[in-house]
Amino acid sequence: MNVIHVHQHDPGLTHVGGIETFINSFLKYAPDDIPVSLVGVTADPGDRPVGRWQKVRIGTREADFFPVVAGHPRRRTAIPLSARFTWALARARSRMDFKGACLTFHRIEPALALRGRPNPKVLFLHVHPQDLHNPKTEVRWGRAPWLYGWLEQRLMADMARIFVVREDAAAYYR
pLDDT (tens digit, 9 = 90+) per residue, 119-148? Predict the structure, then answer.
């Protein structure tokens, strides 16, 4: 089985974040007999062009990488990168081979673009939905937490497995 990580991540960047570290570690340490790929974003479209499968090196391992949109994961723009990534993913899905793949997500939004695909899907939740109600949150869903909840409820039904990183969030979902 091929594992395809679907996240607004550029493996060419050296920024450190929990989700990015998880994905890079998975790509780096997965057994050699498990093909791993990343569908993500590119902060450097000249070096890692949008819309083209390419090889990236993570540690000593090469992985397939398909950036669907240009954008820097740490820079805020008028249209959130998660929205641009999801839209670009929906438009590019016909150019990707998902046969025999398990799709992993670290945000719920990209699952919308791949909803209805027969592939097994695994969701890793890193945030507590109650954080979206915090007026000081930097997550843009804080402006419409009800919409996030609605989207999450519908897309979670399409997941084969869901892992919740935070214990307080796991209790919330139970």
Answer: 999 999 988 778 776 666 666 777 777 888
Q: Which of 154, 70, 85, 79 is nearest to 116 (CA)?
A: 154
Return d(Cα 88, Cα 112) in angstroms, integer: 12
Q: What DSSP designation does 166 have?
A: S
pLDDT in tens, 63-78: 999 999 999 887 888 8
Residue with tokens 């025999």: 100
With a CB cutoff of 8 Å and minimum separation 6, the contacts of 93 are 113, 114, 117
Per residue in 82-115, pLDDT (tens digit) is 999 999 999 999 888 899 999 999 999 999 999 9
